[in-house]
Amino acid sequence: MTRSQNGSTSLSEVDIEPMGPGDVDRCAFLVFDTFDFVLKGFVLDEKLCNEEVRLKYRTANVRYQTAHRNLQIKVARERSGDRRIVGISAYKVVNNDAPSASTASPPEAPAGLDKERWFNFAAKEDDYAEMVYGKTARCDLWFLIVTKEYQGTGLGKRLFDEYVRGANGLPLFLVSSPTAVTFYQRIGFKVVEQAAEDGGMNIKRKHDTSPPQAGELVWPMYRSSPASH
Fold it and tell me: What CA–CA distances, in Å, run from 14 to 47, 79, 86, 96, 153?
């Protein structure tokens, strides 16, 4: 890791490049470490679907999506030392008119997970996107992750710019974590109107009937123009 003279993390020795075959496990761990709170909300049996099981599921899904569903992943990698990955931008063009060339099946959801609710949640993301764009092709941001020591350095914006370039002029769509909504709003995204009326997408445990807190809601967002803001 490089640091400036005042001790802060520097971007001068960080490269952004396509994910390599040997990077899948590290990328999947970062996805798990950052977003496990979402999947965990759909667990019915923690013994059957513990952290180890959820990490394996995330890893299998990253492998499947990159190999068979055209998920593009760019990594931010330190040049020095062990070239540690410190950020990820993962995105995917969604074209409803183009049938998939792959017949491979996605990884099976683990036992102990509320599969019906989990799959309905994923389908609801597409529903919100189609409320905005219809069947028009778009580019979905799957994950944008920056490790803690690089947050606030501008690395997130660099990784977001990789997503915009990958969209190649297509409209943009994502589902934001609770803490990232203001970041995306600053760069031109809006919460999907229907999602705002619905009060966000609830990731609370199924049997928890108390009103969801702010940290238990994620937000579908869109930006029609990929121009830089």
Answer: 39, 6, 9, 36, 11
Q: Which long-range contacts (CB under 8 A, 24 or more apart) does 194-199 make?
A: 194/128, 194/131, 195/128, 195/219, 195/220
Looking at residue 2, its pLDDT comes to 34
CA distance 55 to 119: 18
The Cα-based distances of 75 to 7, 23, 30, 85, 180 in angstroms read 24, 9, 11, 6, 19
Question: How high is the pLDDT of residue 29?
Answer: 96
Give the number of other CB atoms < 10 A from CB of residue 125: 18
Q: Is 38 helix (H, G, I), strand (E, B) or coil?
A: helix
pTM of the shown model: 0.86
Tell me phi and psi for residue 60, to 5 degrees.
-60, -35
Q: Which domains does the chain have, with CATH numbers?
A: 14-223 (3.40.630.30)
pLDDT, one tens digit per residue, over 121-163 is 999 999 999 999 999 999 999 999 999 999 999 999 999 999 9
Going by the DSSP 8-state scheme, the letter that residue 127 receives in this structure is H
Gap between the Cα atoms of 173 and 224, Å rounded: 8
**Tens of pLDDT, residues 183-203:** 999 999 999 999 999 999 988
CA dist., res. 74 & res. 60, Å (int): 18
Torsion of CA 36, 39, 41, 45, to 10 degrees: -110
